[in-house]
Design a protein that fits this description.
Layout lengths: L24 H14 L6 E5 L14 E4 L5 H11 L4 E7 H7 L1 H9 L5 E6 L29 H4 L5 H5 L5 E8 L3 H19 L4 E7 L3 H4 L3 H15 L3 E4 L6
Parallel strand pairs: 1-2, 1-3, 3-4, 4-6, 5-6
Antiparallel strand pairs: 5-7
Helix pairs in contact: 1-7, 3-4
Protein name: 2-oxoglutarate oxidoreductase
Keywords: Oxidoreductase
GO molecular function, one term: thiamine pyrophosphate binding
C-alpha cells in the first residue's frame, strides 16, 4: 500500500484559495494550519479574520472563525481569549489592517500582554483595494497613490511593526520571517509554532510578521515578485527574533 507523505492539513478546508497567482497568503495559511494540527488544537482554536485580501480566511481555516471590523481583530481576539482562556486564539492581519487603521489596537493588545497570537502579513501595499500606498510601502516604491514612488517628505517613512512592538514591556514574542524560499518557509513555520506555544504556556502576547508578495499590485510576475521581496523588503525589514522570553529560547 502506498504511504501518504503529503496531504492537506485538517485545519484547512478543501475550498480553493481566491488569492492571486504568486501571492504567498496560501503558504502562510498552510503553515498556520500545519502548526494547529501538530499541536492537536484544531477543535480548540479560534481565529479572527481581518479586512483585506485575507477577509475570506474564515472559508479556509477549518477551525472556529470570527470576522472583525477593520483593524479590530486584536480587540475581538482579546474578548474571545478572556472568555475562553483554554482556546488557542489568533488574528490573521495584513499591513493595511494592522499597521494603519488597527495600529492602536495592536499596540495596546501588546502593551496589555494579551495572551493571543497575531500573524501579521506584510506585502508593502494595499492589495485588496487596488494597490494604494500602505504604512509599510518602501521608500521609492511605486503604488497607485504614489505613482512616482513613496517620497519621505510627502508620504513619510514606513512603519516597522516588529521594531516598534518589541519596545513594549507587554510584548512577549516578536519575530519577522519570510516565505520567499523553502529555507525561509521552514523558519517561518518554526516562528509560528513558537508564537502559539507561548500562548499555550500563558506567557502573553506574540506576533509573527511574515514578509509576503503581491505580484498583481507590484506589477511583477510571481517569480519576479519573490526576487523583489528578497532584494528589497528584507534589507528594509530585517528578519529575526526581536523579542523572546528566556524560558522558550
Amino acid at each position: 500500500m502506498a504511504k501518504v507523505i503529503f496531504k492537506r492539513p485538517e485545519s484547512l478546508t478543501d475550498k480553493p484559495f481566491h488569492y492571486c497567482p504568486g501571492c504567498t497568503h496560501g503558504i502562510i495559511h498552510r503553515l498556520v494550519a500545519e502548526v494547529i494540527d501538530e499541536m492537536g488544537m484544531r477543535d480548540n482554536t479560534v481565529g479572527v479574520c481581518p479586512v483585506g485580501c485575507s477577509v475570506f480566511a474564515y472559508d479556509y481555516f477549518n477551525v472556529d472563525m470570527f470576522q472583525a471590523a477593520h483593524g479590530r481583530a486584536p480587540a475581538v481576539a482579546t474578548g474571545i481569549k478572556r472568555c475562553l482562556p483554554d482556546r488557542l486564539v489568533f488574528t490573521y492581519q495584513g499591513d493595511g489592517d494592522l499597521a494603519s487603521i488597527g495600529t492602536a489596537e495592536i499596540v495596546h493588545a501588546a502593551a496589555r500582554s494579551e495572551n493571543i497570537t497575531t500573524i501579521f502579513v506584510n506585502n508593502a501595499v494595499y492589495g485588496m483595494t487596488g494597490g494604494q500606498m500602505a504604512p509599510t510601502t518602501l521608500p521609492g516604491q511605486k503604488t497607485t497613490t504614489t505613482p512616482r514612488g513613496r517620497e519621505k517628505e510627502l508620504n513619510g517613512l514606513p512603519v516597522r511593526v516588529c521594531e516598534m512592538l518589541a519596545t513594549l514591556d507587554g510584548a512577549t514574542y516578536v519575530a519577522r520571517v519570510s516565505v520567499h524560499d523553502p529555507k525561509h518557509i521552514v523558519q517561518a513555520k518554526k516562528a509560528i509554532r513558537k508564537a502559539f506555544e507561548i500562548q499555550k504556556a500563558g506567557l502573553g502576547f506574540a506576533l509573527v510578521e511574515v514578509l509576503s508578495t503581491c505580484p498583481t499590485n507590484w506589477g511583477l510576475s510571481p517569480k519576479e515578485a519573490i526576487k523583489w521581496l528578497a532584494d528589497n523588503m528584507i534589507p528594509y525589514y530585517p528578519l529575526g527574533v526581536y523579542k523572546e522570553p528566556a524560558e522558550v529560547k
